[in-house]
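User: Some background: our group keeps a shared notebook of sequences we're curious about, and every so often someone picks one and asks for a predicted structure to add to the entry. Today it's my turn. The entry only has the sequence so far, pasted here. Could you supply the structure so I can complete it?
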Amino acid sequence: MDTLEKFQAWLLKESRNIGKVVDFNPLIDQLLPLDFTANNKELTNDVLDDTTKFSAWVDEKLVVNQCLYGIGGYNEHRTIYNRSTHFDTGEEPRRLHLGIDIWGKANTAIYNFYDAEVHSFRNNDNFGDYGATIILKYELDDLTLYALYGHLSFASLIGLEEGMKINAGQQFAFFGVPAENGHWPPHLHFQLMFSMQGLKGDYPGVCQFSKRNLYLNNCPDPATILQHTFKSV
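Assistant: Of course. Here's the predicted structure to add to the notebook entry:
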């Protein structure tokens, strides 16, 4: 049984014990799929180059559509990374998104979906980067899984120590404001990894398209966890 098969077997066995990542009531709350590919003609350079305008665009979409969160992004080829040289890597820039983004209000509470410990944390303080970041480590039977929570508030990092236990259902972080989260509209970047490949406090959330299969094999679809928050993603 390979790593992905082990993960799928664990998901099936532990389905009832996987908790929420953010607060969401499926009876009254709604999700808005957001497209950040070249198909979205509304996101001009004028909007993307100004974090205030970009944030206002996201806010307006949520208000007009009466949605609590915007969501999407896994395996999505995104043009929005043109806004930062952080994603320019040699001849081929990084544009393929490896996590799912949950767009919402700053200071939205984030919860741990299963018992874990703190693997590492860091303020990745580049324009367009994660900003405040926490990576949790999960032992799932005979499988180790990591989850990266990016674009957090600075307060989320206070008091953390590597190896610290974070219980299932525990609220442990918040969405950050742009000055804390890498200068993005408030949101959570949620990403799963089977291996950290020796990294601490950081892991690529965007890769070169030519390395798509390599990274997707290590980064399974986060919807497998988030569906337990939203019921459908």
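Suggested note for the entry: The chain has five helices and 13 strands. The longest strand covers residues 131-140.
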